Every structure is written in structure tokens, then in C-alpha cells.
Amino acid sequence: MKKYILLTLFIFTALHLSAVDLNGVKWISIEKTLTKPNQWICYRKAFTLEKAEKTAMLTISVDSKYWLWVNGKLVVFEGGLKRGPNPDDTYFDSLDIASYLKKGNNTIAILMWYWGKDGFCHKNSGSPGLLAKLQSGNREIISDASWKVKVHPAYGESQEPLPNYRLPESNIHFDARKDIPDWMKPEYDDSNWQQATIAGSYPCQPWNQIHPRPFPNWYDSGLTEYVSVERSFKSDTLIIKAKLPRNISVTPYFEIEANEGLFIDIRSDNYKGGSEYNVRAEYVTKKGKQSFEAFNYVNGHAIIYTIPPGVKVNKVAYRETRFNTEHVGSFECDDIFLNTLWQKSLNTMNLNMRDAIQDPDRERSQWWGDAVIVSGEILYSCDSNAHGLIQKAIRNLVDWQRKDSVLYSPVPAGSWARELPLQMLASIGKFGMWNYYLYTGDTETIRHAYPAVKRYLAKWKTDERNLVIHRPGDWDWGDWGENIDLPILDNAWYCLALEGAQNMASLLGYKEDASVYHQQIKTIKQAVNTFYWNGKVYCSSDFQESPDDRANGLAVLAGFADSDKWKSIKTFLTDNFHASPYMEKYILEAFFVSGDVQGGLDRMKKRYKYMVDHPLTTLWEDWQIGGAGGGSINHGWAGGPLSLLSQYIAGISPLEAEWNKILIKPTLGNLKQVVCTVPTKTGTITATIKNQTGHLYSIDVTNTDNKIIHIAFPKDKIKQSLVINGRKYENNQLSSINQHSVKYLKSDESYHYFEIKNPTINISATH
């Protein structure tokens, strides 16, 4: 229930952010002489209210994260977003806490974790700070020198190993002998705490302007029992391996009785995921009964507690936190392998959604090659709360553009500013920003991004042959693996970027720009086919290795290959496997857009067999664990089959932006049945397709938005007649159907197309 309250608060808050007046609000902190990295700081504010209001909006901003209690009750678990709406500014949260307040005395308590270092995903401000304003009726409570503050003495520095250099987060070290019991409760006596230090009036450096959090706070499961708990001993040390239901992000918890000064280690079984150290927790016991929750989230399939002699463990538990969205999309067919692959893709995507689109362990960084693929998965599986994560990713990318017009990722970042040119082209292209617009109708984000897109594209040039001149950027990377034909990839990714830019320009009314992009695409396509087509496959003239499967798949998607070329490319792609899971998505998509569904499914099953058969519940960075790039076992770019199966096999896609018109064009191959649900912006589309050999072929649709549906029905499934919502039409009558709710549109070589206006649709034919 708590989740839905937070969603409601977020929706309400988002409508009122412009009304927040921060005049007179102070940034508060501790004395500069006390400041250091990896610091936990407690804030308290006691106040009275003459009456309890129906609404009480709290605006709060910190560097880096916070936990909030109101009158002793936990309200926000891990609030705040990593810094970096742009290189200077900070995010803020806003929520209605009226239900936690009362007439008379009230107390707000905030635990703030200041990281104090840059990372691949966070821009350190250089100073811990808290800004807060509560508006309850006419009463204002603001952060100022009246707040009490204390550095929490129990938190300190851990032993080695420390987290790898990419992460701004530190390990947690908590010495319970130095704890402040019940400090967040109203009755706690804070009279010996210091008054907060004023760091400046809003807006001020180093936090500058604050920007609204673009999506709700995390889903919080509350403390939950593990699936199972295994106990074993190594010498006299107890090892508890507590199993999670699948690979998820959690904060571990325990209740114990102990002597004082004993050392407990807490980490996940994925502590060294991606071949480098992530984060863990250390706990030093006090005497007697005690409990502890490690607030730095970790992920894995199990949590491992290392317990020394002298400690009695009474309980272990975990709290799952994740991006606050409902996974309303689904895919199920009569092939267990594909069902498992879709679900593992979903599990992986779930872990890759947090402050940014990111892996959950080694880097937690928003690489845009990954973000393009994960955003497609989000759009086919999550409710509209998740659209804010993609919107944030796009705005981060363009708002961090370098002065030399280069776009780079990962951003936000304080310790990275290097361009990966091909990933940047992917981000602004057909499968990146434009795909986001098509599924959401968010014109304002496209309007915000387009100037940066135009500036970046201007950095790319063509040679005297009209082929793209290679830009190595700061990291000359096309994919993991071998046989990477960069000249083909350069031209394909650039044309896909031009296609995205052309669509953006047309949407925004920049007709001249759109015309220029269109002509560039046409010219480059002709040049690629002149210089890089060898009669069988695409291969650059100076490429000494065997042809590249990834380059040929992407060439198809970029529109270089006609149907005759596809026949030859398909033969090549059937037996050549060089791409990593990143580029494999585009090879598979080339099969599907070319109409060879079964060929695409066969390759998908061959490529993903080891991952699907493996007991891990997520998908990996490479085809083998520990492969190229470190081998993360929860890498979002491997989840491309999620969107591919829903979009091409079930055949559900938007014909117009924001799902205002919908196409259902199933292509089942050898499958006998598919049931797929896809989220639209305000509802869902569910299609059930049955393909019973020698008997019935049917498409059933439930459309909660009651939008206009275009259904493509395969011609080869119709012998004599078609039944549409209970009415029978003979084959020779189909082209004349023109009713209010059912209209014949057109036909092509393989399909009849119908427009149907009805929230429920059944269309069927016997073989």
C-alpha cells in the first residue's frame, strides 16, 4: 500500500513544483572542519502546528542520499538522486507528508549520507548539504540555523577491499558501540547537539539550482523473509547464505545477541560482479540484543553473512528497493525457452533501473548503448512512471554536452567525459530518442534535445565518396568481440541517427533541416552499396578479417539492403556469430523486419541457449560469465529479446505517437500460441494469437484505451472466410468492408489490413 501512496504523492507533487518558493531557505551543513568523504550526518527539527492540514508539502535536496522520519515513522527510504541534472546543479524531492503530521508537537529527522567523491554516475558537490522546506497551510518550516545536527559517530571507514574507482558509494562500516539509539524519535533529547551551520541562501554554490526528481521514489518492500537460509561453518565462523527469490537489489538486515567488539561482514554473492569489487557492509557489535540494516543497497541471488563466535543470530531479512513502476507488460507462448528468456530480460531490466539506466553493481553508470536497448524494454513492460527514467536519461545526455559539441556518456558523471561515438549516434537515432517519442508522445523532451542533437551531428563529415569519415572519439569502440567492421558501423549508425534527427526536425517544424538529413541518408546509402557491397554481404574494402555479422544486421536496419540483398545476408547471418549481446539485438531485429521470423527465432535460441539454461535469473554482458568487458551478470543490453518478442512476434507497436493508433501484426513462425500485454501511456493492449496448424488462426485483442487498432491478418490463413467480432465475411467481400467499427484498409503480399474501433476484438479464420 505504501507504494501507491508514494505514487499518488508524486503525481500530486509533479503538478505543484513550479509553485515552490525557496526564498529565504538556507542550505545547512556541519562545520567545514568536520567535513570528510563517506560521512553520515543526522539532522533534527522540532516544531509545532496549530492544526493538522490536509496537505503538507516537503521539498528536500541533499548531496548525496537521505532517509526521512516524521514523528518517528520512516517516510522515505533512500531519498534523493545522484547529482547531475547538468554539470552544476542538484536534484530535489517533493512529497506530501500531511498524513505523518499532527496538531501540536512534531519532529522531522533526516539521516544524510554524503559520499564526497565523484563517480561514473555522480558529480560530487564538494560539501555535504541539506535544503528543506515544509509548507503546511500558512506555516513554513525551513532549513536554517535552528536545526540540530550531529555527525553519526557509528559510521566509519571500512577495511579493504574498497569499492572500485567508478563508484561514488563507499562500503558501510557501523560500530554499534558508538550508536545513537532512537535519535530519530520525537522524545529523543538533542540538547547537546550542535546548531546547523548555514552554508548559504538558496541558490548558492556548490549545489546551485535544484531540479525536480522526474519520477517517484523507490518501491520499498519493507523487511521480508528470505526464500531460504543455509547455515554452515568455516572453522568456528558461521556462514549464513540467505537466498533471494531472484537477482534483486536489497538492503540486508539482521537481529542478533552478542558480546561487544565482534566483527560481522555482509555482502551479496555478486560482490565481485563484473570482476571488480562493489559495495558491502561491516558491523561491529555492542553488548546485548541489537539489530542493523545496511543502507547501501547490493544485488545478487543471495546475501552472505559472516558471523564470528559469540554472536547469536535471531533473525535475518532483507528489504527490496527498486524503481517504482508496475511491470504490466508480459509475453507468453508455447515455447518455454522464449518465455524464460523474456522473463530473464525483465529481471535484468528491473535491476538496471535506478537513479539512471545502469547496471546495479560494478559501475551503476548510464552508458547510452545500454540505455537505448533498455529503454525499449521499459516501453514494452513498464507503466508510465518509468517514462521519467528515459526522459531523465535524454535530458542528462544533452545537458552535459561538452563545449566542443561532443555528446558523451556515461552521464551524470564527475570522473568521466569521454565520447564513444557510435553509442552517441545510437542515442540520438531511430532506436534512441525517436523511439522514446513514438511510444510516449513527449514532444517537449524532443524539443529540449534537438539543438544538442543538431550540434553533435554537425561534427560528423563524409569523404569524397560520400562515406562517413571515421571519428575515433575518446574511446574507439564498436562492440566487444572480433570481426568489428567499423566503416560499415559508422555509416549505418550515422544514417540511423540522421533518420532520428529527420523525424525530430519534421515534428518540430524545421523543414529545411529535415530535407538536409533526408538527402544525406539517400546519398550515404547509395555510397555504401557502391563501395561496401561485395555481392554477398557488406564488407569494407580495407577490412581484412571475415565479414561482420553485426555490421550486416545494422546495415539492414539502416535501410541499405533491399530484399534481394537480404537473401544473401540471411545465409551469412545463419552461420556467423561474432557480436556480443549488445549488437546481437540489432542482428535479430534485422531478421524480424525482413520478415524471416523463424530465422530470427532460431538464431535467438542458439545465441541465448547457455544464458537461458543457466540457473542465474538475469542476462549477461557477454555470452560467457567473466567475458569481455568484465562480464557483468546483469547487463541490460542483453535483454533485447524482451522488446523484440513483444514488438515483432506478438506484433504490437504504435502507428502514431503516444499509441494514438496501434498496429497488431503477429508473426509467429512455428509458434502455436502467443499471449502478450503491452502498456500504452494510459492503459494496456493484450493480444492473444492462436495458430493451430490445419485448424483455427485467430487474433483476440483487449484494448483498455479504446484506441484505433489496425490488425494485419495473414492471407495464407484464410481459405474462404473471415469472422470479425462475430460477423462472417467471405473472402471476396473483405475489400468492401466499410462500417463504423470495421473498415478494410489495404493488402500487401502477405496481409490484409483492417481498422477496428472496439475495446474487444476477435478476428479468426479456419485453414
Secondary structure topology:
Elements (H helix, E strand, L loop, with lengths): L1 H13 L11 E4 L9 E11 L6 E8 L1 E6 L2 E7 L10 E7 L7 E11 L14 E8 L2 E4 L5 E4 L3 E2 L15 E4 L18 E2 L1 E5 L8 E3 L6 E6 L3 E7 L2 E22 L4 E6 L12 E4 L3 E6 L4 E10 L3 E12 L7 E4 L2 H16 L16 H14 L5 H13 L21 H8 L4 H8 L2 H15 L28 H23 L2 H21 L17 H9 L5 H13 L5 H13 L3 H17 L26 H10 L2 E5 L4 E4 L8 E7 L4 E8 L4 E8 L4 E7 L6 E4 L2 E4 L11 E6 L3 E6 L3 E7 L1
Parallel strand pairs: 6-15, 12-20, 26-30
Antiparallel strand pairs: 1-14, 2-7, 2-10, 3-6, 3-8, 4-5, 4-7, 8-9, 10-13, 11-12, 16-23, 17-18, 18-21, 18-22, 18-23, 19-20, 19-22, 24-27, 25-26, 27-28, 28-29, 29-35, 30-34, 31-32, 31-35, 33-34
List keywords for this structure.
4 domains; Glycosyltransferase; Jelly Rolls; seven-stranded antiparallel sheet; 6hp_glycosidase-like_sf; Bac_rhamnosid_N; globular; Alpha-L-rhamnosidase; alpha+beta; 767 residues; 14 helices; 25% helix
Explain what you see.
Residues 327-649 form the Alpha-L-rhamnosidase six-hairpin glycosidase domain. Residues 55-199 form the Bacterial alpha-L-rhamnosidase N-terminal domain. It holds the Pfam family Bac_rhamnosid6H. This is Alpha-L-rhamnosidase. InterPro entries: 6-hairpin_glycosidase_sf, 6hp_glycosidase-like_sf, Bac_rhamnosid6H, Bac_rhamnosid_N, Galactose-bd-like_sf. By secondary structure, this protein is of the alpha+beta class. The protein has 4 domains: 2-153 and 178-215, Jelly Rolls (Sandwich), CATH 2.60.120; 221-322, Sandwich (Jelly Rolls), CATH 2.60.120.260; 330-649, Glycosyltransferase (Alpha/alpha barrel); 658-766, Maltose phosphorylase, domain 3. Helices cover 25% and strands 30% of the residues. It is built from 14 helices and 35 strands. The strands form 6 sheets. Strands 11, 12, 16, 17, 18, 19, 20, 21, 22 and 23 form a 10-stranded mixed β-sheet that branches. Strands 24-27-28-29-35-31-32 form a 7-stranded antiparallel β-sheet. A hairpin with a 2-residue loop joins strand 31 and strand 32 (727-730). Helix 3 (368-381) packs across helix 14, helix 8 (486-508) packs parallel to helix 10 and helix 12 (581-593) runs parallel beside helix 14. The chain starts with a helix and ends with a strand.
